[in-house]
Amino acid sequence: MRAAVTEGVGTMTLTERPEPGPPGPGDVVIRPEAVGICGSDYHFFTGDMSEAAGGSRFPRIQGHELAGEITAVGPDCRPGLEVGRRVAVWPLHPCGRCYPCGAGRPNACDRLTLTGVHLDGGLQERLAIGQRQVFPIAVADAAVAALAEPVSIAVRAVNRAAVRPRERAVVLGAGPIGQCIGLVARERGAQTLLVDLQESRLALSREMGSQEAYLWRDADDVVAFARRWAGPAGPPVAFDATGAAAATAAMIGMVASAGRAVQVGMSNELAQVRVGVLTEKELDLLGVSCCGQPEFAEAVAVVERNAGRLARLVSHEFGLDRAPEAIRFAIANPAEVMKVVIRGA
Question: Does domain 151-287 have CATH number 3.30.2060.10?
Answer without folding.
Answer: no
